[in-house]
Design brief:
Length: about 450
Amino acid sequence: MRRFLLLFMMLGAVMLAAQGGFLTLQEARELALQNNAAYQAKLAEYQAAEWGKVSALGNFLPTLSLDGSWLYMDPAATVTAGPASITLNNDFRTLGLSLSQPLFLGGKLWQGYQISKLTAGMAQTELTGQRLTLLNEVDRLYLGVLQTKDLLALSDLDLRSATRNLELAQLKLDNGLISSADYLRFQSRLASKEVAALQSRTALQLAQLNLRNTLGIDFMPEVDDLPGLEQDASLQALYDYDFQNTEALTTMALEKGKTGNMALQLLDSGVELSRRAYQIRKGSFLPSLMLVGSRQYEENGIDRYKFTPSTQVILSASLPLLPQVGNYAELKKAEFNYQKARLEVQTAINGIQLGTEAAVLSLVSAAQQLRAARLALDYTQTSYEQLQERFRLNLISSTEMLDADLMLSSARIAMDGAVYGYHKARLALVDIMGLESASELDAMIITGANI
């Protein structure tokens, strides 16, 4: 079983290396932006909204059309002029130019253009939000692969430790120092470690599959390790955070979130959109003014291709009178939609503020838990080495040795969870503030530590 497990793990590592799927975090982000279908769809939506803005601007411009007609009559028309009659041609040709310029349409054109600008701005905000969401998801999945990779390494350590303990137990059993029941417990512990190693390998492959699908690549990615936390200045600063420092960091995060949070920006744009729709409904009660000019060229019916020109200029005005019930109902509907949008923004602000405060507290707590977990692992490792030596000298029982082994395994897993818990807490705060990377957050943490 042990040989099969080691062979399986070696083959998996060789296959990953052969596929050339070694990625840094920055490379993974770039691949996601290139290949992710959801992000590309948002990009196309933004481009369509930009052209929609150009289309709305074109509504202000005059329209010029060229018209032409050909009329054939059988029999030909006859015109009586005094005692004589004239038979006209069977066919007539007419050419015309028509120019139309809207002067005032109750403000609908202006509001429509402003709405198209808002729509384009919202599409750009959504694109930025999709970008940040995608990058955050890549970071999360990348961390997931790293964490499962570390858990696999811990499982391998536990497996080697259980193998050494079983070898010691075999020597003690041969010398009559422990019972068969105690030896079976060591065998059971080794078997459980082998199962845990297989489970860790499966979890790693699943995490790699999730990352592969998000990146849109055709190979299983093997990720590079992140820089160590030993020299992380922001983490060292968080170790010494007290209530005052936490409040300072929360204030800075809230201020940044007001301008960086994409959801809040979309809600603000939605309020302005509702206000513009309300203004359009107001314009339905106003008059409209249109200027139309035309130049016609017609044959006289006698001389072919000899056209007689005529010009018309029309200034038309229209004022809606009845019915106005529908217009009034639509006006009130737009007014209440506007009020609803403003209230939803206030609710969202409260939610984002609460989420930001919780994210800051989680980050400070995760950093301090990491420090505690590191100390606990150091103490547990030292204690385990002493107990292992005492077990080799037959100074402690098998039960105590197994308990020490379990304690060390738990401390390693707790340390790994604390490391990635800190990374994920940073990621959550970066996401809620609308940042693309954590470098700005690191600067805020250090600033907060100096207050």
